[in-house]
From TrEMBL:
SUPFAM superfamilies: Glucocorticoid receptor-like (DNA-binding domain), N-terminal domain of MutM-like DNA repair proteins, S13-like H2TH domain. Residues 234-268 form the FPG-type domain. The keyword Signal does not apply. This is DNA-(apurinic or apyrimidinic site) lyase. It holds the Pfam family Fapy_DNA_glyco. It comes from Micromonospora deserti.
């Protein structure tokens, strides 16, 4: 599933394509026909991402809400759109550009109170200027749940997925199984600041890189990582491989049905 940086990049991209334009919306697949009819003829005023949720705010207090889930994806282009291929849930077109959405978990119109309710269900998003990290820490410090599970819970922190969580815990030297209530104030401040920095870099580059300069392939004389996710990481999907910092084999374990990765030496706690 795409992590928050991808959704923030999409919000910026869609504003670039359409902001200020009157849009024509269709649902070639038919499942969003009614919503598309309501969107048609309205002006897209602004876009924003909140965690893994994408919002298009249209004139007339209409908000399009999209959650890509595991399989959703957008394609776009200039000029005339191509013939719809496959299950296109939503097609947006202006005089200049087109945008197709396939396979989302959510594609719906929300009223302002529904947008407020969605935001209320989500924890602070490290990529948003209005994020309040105290809200997340207030939950973490009261909880016996492992830190990795708390950080993956979108109600605690929004936008973080397995790669950011795994890597930020490594960089902070924290074991993923540490109970939330054992994370001290300084530890949280450091972890939050690191999530903000890692996620901003990912928005900028369009991929997740978490490795410090001293541990880059060229600095260490090692081969670059080959993985469809791209990016250089410390422990994510590197089970059994030597830790870039200490050489210990990276561990893998399960937590709530997700794979976790950590260095048993660097993250001994
Ligand atoms: Zn290590």
């Amino acid at each position: 599933m795409p992590e928050g940086h991808t959704i923030h990049r999409l919000a910026a991209r869609h504003a670039e394509l359409f902001a200020g334009d009157k849009l024509y919306a269709t649902s070639p697949q038919g499942r969003f026909a009614e919503g598309a009819a309501r969107l048609t003829g309205t002006v897209l005023e602004a876009t924003e991402a909140y965690g893994k949720h994408l919002l298009h705010h249209h004139a007339g207090e209409l908000t399009l809400h999209v959650h890509l889930g595991l399989y959703g994806r957008f394609t776009d282009g200039a000029g005339e759109p191509p013939e719809p291929v496959g299950q296109v849930r939503l097609r947006l077109t202006s005089d200049r550009h087109w945008l197709d959405l396939r396979g989302p978990t959510a594609c719906e119109l929300l009223t302002p109170p529904e947008v407020a309710a969605l935001r209320g269900r989500l924890g602070p998003d490290p990529l948003r200027a209005d994020a309040d990290p105290e809200r997340a820490y207030a939950r973490i410090r009261r909880s016996a749940t492992p830190l990795a599970a708390l950080l993956l819970d979108q109600a605690v922190v929004a936008g973080t997925g397995l790669i950011f969580v795994t890597e930020a815990l490594f960089r902070s030297g924290l074991p993923p199984t540490l109970p939330g209530r054992r994370l001290g104030r300084a530890g949280w401040d450091q972890l939050w600041a690191d999530l903000v920095a890692l996620m901003r870099t990912a928005v900028h580059r369009g991929r997740i890189d978490t490795v410090r300069d001293a541990h880059l392939p060229e600095a260490m004389g090692r081969d670059p990582r080959v993985d469809r996710h791209g990016g250089e990481v410390y422990v994510y999907r590197r089970p059994g491989a030597p830790c870039h910092v200490c050489g210990t084999a990276v561990s893998r374990g399960q937590l709530a049905g997700r794979n976790l990765y950590w260095c048993p030496a660097c993250q001994a706690g």
